[in-house]
Each structure stands twice: as structure tokens, then as C-alpha cells.
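Checklist before submission:
- one chain only
- standard amino acids only
- sequence pasted in full

Submission:
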Amino acid sequence: MNRPSRHPSETPILLITLLLVGGVLIVTTGLTACVIPVIMAVMLLYSYMANQQHHQELMQQALRVPVDGPAGENEGLDQLGQLVRECRQALDCEPVEVFIVPSRQLNAYTFGLGSPKAIVLYRPMLQIMDADELKFVIGHEMGHVIFGHTWLNTLLGGMAGMPTSFGAAIIFTFAFRWWNRACEYSADRAGMAACGSVIKGISALAQLEVGDIDTAEELRRALAVIEKQDDSLENLLGESLSDHPMIVKRIKALRE
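Returned file contents:
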């Protein structure tokens, strides 16, 4: 099996971001190139401890999906576990844990510096998405794992969080989120490889934006609204401060 490739923009943006943030830190704080790695190691240790605490909270409060095989206790969770195994096989992904948390939002995220990484799914997605759409979402989150986004995000976030001038902080924010947005395109490629359907990937993204979509006509109307997103200057400016691209751009990338 072949792993999906990163989006072409991600690696160049990552290199530019690392050089930019590292250079600005040296110039504005007087830190040497030898001191910065020491500070980063401390921040990585702190992030690891925070991740461990969050993991323990999930173990106590969230539903854990049986990813290694059917547990026989909950048919819905067993079916979701099967989807996770199919996605892992399609992407050649390392073992992951999957949790379901109650929420009114449609969202998912991945975290972890050690192994296994953890994928967290918000319950409403399980209620409105079909199996292939869920595989896109799960595959997307696994993409963050296989491309190393979880630890890179911690590394860059730690650099951006170092005490510095206001101007440097602005530069860090824009650079860091620029790279975050590039990561989403790469992860969407993994989602596509996991679900194997462009239309299912598009419908999953559309539902993250507008909510439940049950018919082809509802999807058509939703896409008509979404396609106007990048016509707005306000949306374009807002995207520069966001860690996710506009859904319309992600859908266009899937179609390419």
C-alpha cells in the first residue's frame, strides 16, 4: 500500500516558518542558536506532560472505541472500530487510540507526542455522517499522525510561545498558522486515501461547515453557499488568522 503524499506547499512553508521563527527569536531576544534547542526541549517536556494529563481525562470521561477488534459491548462502537482499522490499513498508519466526546460541535482533533497518538471525535459527527464520510474524517486525523504534525505542531507552537516583542509575536502567529493551514491540505489527502471517494470527502467537509446533509440536492445547495466564501474580503482576512483554510479551498484542493 502507498501512503498519501504531503500537499506540495507543506514542506516549503514548514522550512520558511522554521527559519523565520528561529531567526526572529535570535534577533529579538538575543538567544543563541545553542540556547534555543534547550528551551525547546523544556517546552516539549511540558507539552508531553499536558498531553498525558489530557489523555487520562479522556480515559475517565470519554467513550473509547475498540480499535483492536470488536468488544461485543456496543455494536455502534464496534462498527466504528472497524472503520478505524480499515483506515489504518489503507494509510499504513501506526496504532492510534480513538475517543468519542459529547459536544454540540462537529469537530475532531488529534494529539500526542508519544505512542499511541489519540484521535478525538465529537459525537454529532457519528449521528450525521455515513461510514465513508467518517472514514474521511478519521483518515484526515490519521494524516496528522503519519505526517508528524502532532509533534511538529508542539515544536513550532513552543517556539511561537517564547516571550518576545509584540511585533515578533505577530510574525510568529501568522507564520505558525500559515503552516497549520498547509497541514490541513495534506491531512485531507490522507482522508481521501482512506475513504476512496472524492464526493464523500466533499460531503464530509460540507457537513463540517453547514451541518447535516441527507440528499444530493441538499449537498448542491450547501456547496453553492460554500463556494461564495472566498468572495468575501472579510473571510480572506479572517483566514490569515485561522489554523484551518476555508472549506471552499479545501474542497477545491480535493477536486484537483
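Reviewer check: The longest strand covers residues 96-101.
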